[in-house]
């Protein structure tokens, strides 16, 4: 299945909570949001709104918590291999080596990662305007595609403002 994942780096718990609140206000569902953070930096939104948690090792001495819908992916990876790391879970999501390294570096620097699962491409402008307005450090879009899966049809949730009629080409040609 092909889908987009937008992730952004927040500097603090307060900054991460503000990102979550603004995304929610922009119409992004809480079910689309996930957080990656060191357990000591757990944002309040991870306690109140974002459901599900997985504790995943980042290295031999440090663990990372994953809250939200992506925690199910990480719990599944841990069920298959109890020695799996954060990198293994990110690989299961479809992130390449460069993207995994960037996220792991941010987490080692005690940053919080906010991940947004984009259900429809029309959500991207509101996501980017929200992230840009909050001055997140890194914002990146990852197109995750699992080979062999059918590409989903475009959502009909949003409708274009103008759709030309079937006979409009003839009308303009006659003029």
N-to-C CA distance: 46 Å
Instruction: Specify the overall morphology.
Output: globular
Query: What share of residues are in beta strands?
Result: 15-25%
- Which stretches are poorly predicted, pLDDT < 50 over at least 5 residues? 146-175
Number of domains: 1
Query: Helix segment count?
Result: 7
The helix/strand class is alpha+beta
* Helix amount: 25-40%
Question: Order of strands across the widest beta sheet?
Answer: 3-4-2-5-1-6
Average pLDDT, all residues: 78
Instruction: Work out the radius of gyration.
Output: 19 Å
User: How many DSSP-defined strands?
Assistant: 6
Order of helices and strands: EHEHEEHHHEHEH
Largest sheet: 6 strands, antiparallel
For this entry, give a set of tags.
6-stranded antiparallel β-sheet, globular, 175 residues, 6 strands, 38% helix, alpha+beta
Task: Explain this structure.
- It is a single chain.
- The chain has 175 residues and is an alpha+beta fold.
- It has one domain.
- The protein has seven helices and six strands; from the N terminus they run βαβαββαααβαβα.
- A six-stranded antiparallel β-sheet has the order 3-4-2-5-1-6, with helices on both faces.
- α3 (70-80) packs across α4 (86-93) and α4 (86-93) crosses α5.
- Mean pLDDT is 78; it is low at 146-175.
């Amino acid at each position: 299945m092909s889908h987009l994942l937008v992730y952004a780096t927040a500097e603090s718990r307060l900054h991460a909570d503000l990102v979550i609140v603004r995304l929610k206000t922009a119409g992004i569902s809480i079910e689309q949001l996930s957080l990656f953070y060191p357990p000591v930096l757990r944002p309040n939104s991870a306690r109140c709104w974002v459901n599900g948690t997985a504790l995943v090792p980042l290295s031999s001495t440090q663990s990372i918590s994953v809250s939200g819908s992506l925690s199910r992916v990480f719990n599944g990876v841990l069920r298959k291999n109890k020695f799996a790391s954060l990198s293994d879970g990110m690989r299961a999501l479809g992130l390449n080596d460069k993207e995994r390294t960037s996220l792991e570096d941010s987490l080692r620097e005690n940053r919080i990662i906010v991940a947004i699962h984009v259900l429809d491409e029309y959500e991207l402008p509101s996501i980017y305007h929200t992230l840009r307005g909050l001055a997140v450090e890194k914002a990146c879009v990852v197109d995750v595609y699992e080979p062999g899966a059918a590409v989903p049809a475009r959502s009909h949730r949003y409708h274009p403002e103008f759709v030309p009629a079937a006979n409009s080409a003839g009308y303009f040609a006659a003029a």
